UniProtKB/TrEMBL annotation:
<dbReference type="Pfam" id="PF04444">
    <property type="entry name" value="Dioxygenase_N"/>
</dbReference>
<dbReference type="InterPro" id="IPR007535">
    <property type="entry name" value="Catechol_dOase_N"/>
</dbReference>
<dbReference type="InterPro" id="IPR015889">
    <property type="entry name" value="Intradiol_dOase_core"/>
</dbReference>
<keyword id="KW-0479">Metal-binding</keyword>
<keyword id="KW-0223">Dioxygenase</keyword>
<feature type="domain" description="Catechol dioxygenase N-terminal">
    <location>
        <begin position="36"/>
        <end position="102"/>
    </location>
</feature>
<feature type="region of interest" description="Disordered">
    <location>
        <begin position="1"/>
        <end position="36"/>
    </location>
</feature>
<protein>
    <submittedName>
        <fullName>Catechol 1,2-dioxygenase</fullName>
    </submittedName>
</protein>
<feature type="region of interest" description="Disordered">
    <location>
        <begin position="97"/>
        <end position="132"/>
    </location>
</feature>
<dbReference type="InterPro" id="IPR000627">
    <property type="entry name" value="Intradiol_dOase_C"/>
</dbReference>
<keyword id="KW-0408">Iron</keyword>
<keyword id="KW-0560">Oxidoreductase</keyword>
<dbReference type="InterPro" id="IPR043029">
    <property type="entry name" value="1_2-CTD_multi_dom"/>
</dbReference>
<feature type="compositionally biased region" description="Basic and acidic residues">
    <location>
        <begin position="19"/>
        <end position="36"/>
    </location>
</feature>
<comment type="similarity">
    <text>Belongs to the intradiol ring-cleavage dioxygenase family.</text>
</comment>
<dbReference type="Pfam" id="PF00775">
    <property type="entry name" value="Dioxygenase_C"/>
</dbReference>
<dbReference type="InterPro" id="IPR050770">
    <property type="entry name" value="Intradiol_RC_Dioxygenase"/>
</dbReference>
């Protein structure tokens, strides 16, 4: 068998299994064991499914197709992908509704903690011949009173110019386009990277099967993922998008907000583009 070494040979099953393993390592917990709460939430979900069956007069063929599909989501390891695309945006809305600072949005399935740390100004780890338009992403991290948060931590990860994430597609260096950048004493950060490509969620697994069967599309607009934090302040998980992206108004994951759209300008030295975006963190 040919060895899988190229990112373009990524499969839904492989990236899905990886996302599932990662989730188990980092986040799986038995949160909310309160019986009343479990009863309430589980009853509502089950009722929503039953209401759909009754109101839509779902047939046995459709019920069996649903059952087969649910089994395949698990086999492909695609529960993290499915949930982060179709459900996480509502969880994020609830979680961040009281914030006054920068807008958050979904984390998605491809965060990896502890990316190599660098002081600002930084260049993200990338291949020598990394394809794509160079992008200088810079800004300032402040509190709600516009005071700089010295040494704030900016974690950033994003897809490459073909839409693939390191550690989830084969053949990419471990930390490609992933980094932890420490802002300077004035809360300023500057990060050299490349512009990510629009990202298509894997189309060859269970989620892709649903998308094709329903006549949807699989695209997310190009995006930078970020986690920004500072001592005494709430960490914000967010994404930033690009003005003019064909999918910015039509994200399969419903994660775009108008405040999160960047409009980079050509750099004076002609070397790619640059954009400034400031983060405002809420107190803990
Ligand atoms: C998915 C991928 C992403 O890059 C993202 O930001 C959100 C969701 C996904 O494949 O489910
Ligand atoms: Fe993403």
């Amino acid at each position: 068998m040919k060895e899988m070494t190229q990112e373009t040979e990524a499969t839904a099953a492989a990236s899905g299994q990886r996302a599932t393993e990662r989730f188990r390592e980092q986040k799986a917990s038995a949160a909310g064991t309160d019986k009343e709460r479990v009863n309430r939430l589980a009853s509502r979900v089950v009722k929503a499914i039953n209401d759909t069956v009754l109101e839509e007069k779902v047939t046995y063929d459709e019920y069996n197709a649903f059952k087969a599909w649910l089994i395949k989501v698990g086999e492909d390891g695609e529960w993290p992908l499915f949930l982060d695309v179709w459900v996480e945006h509502s969880v994020e809305q609830v979680a961040n509704e009281d914030r006054h600072g920068s807008k958050g949005t979904i984390e998605g399935p491809y965060y990896v903690p502890d990316a190599p740390e660098q002081q600002s100004p930084a260049t993200l780890p990338m291949r020598e011949d990394e394809p794509g338009t160079p992008l200088l992403f810079q800004g300032r991290v402040t509190n709600l009173e516009d005071q700089p948060l010295a040494g704030a931590k900016v974690e950033i990860w994003h897809a490459d110019d073909l839409g693939f994430y390191s550690q989830y597609a084969p053949g990419l260096p471990e930390w490609n386009l992933r980094g932890t950048v420490i802002a300077d004493a004035d809360g300023n950060f500057a990060i050299n990277t490349i512009q990510p490509a629009p990202y298509q969620i894997p189309t060859d697994g269970a989620c892709g099967q649903l998308i094709a069967a329903a006549g949807w599309h699989a695209w997310r607009p190009a995006h930078l993922h970020l986690k920004v934090s500072a001592p005494g302040h709430q960490l914000i998980t967010t994404q930033l998008y690009f003005q003019g992206d064909p999918h910015v108004g039509d994200d399969i994951a419903s994660a775009v907000k108008p405040e999160l759209i960047l409009d980079p300008a050509p750099r004076a030295d002609g070397n790619g583009r640059e954009v400034t975006y400031d983060f405002v963190l809420d107190p803990e």
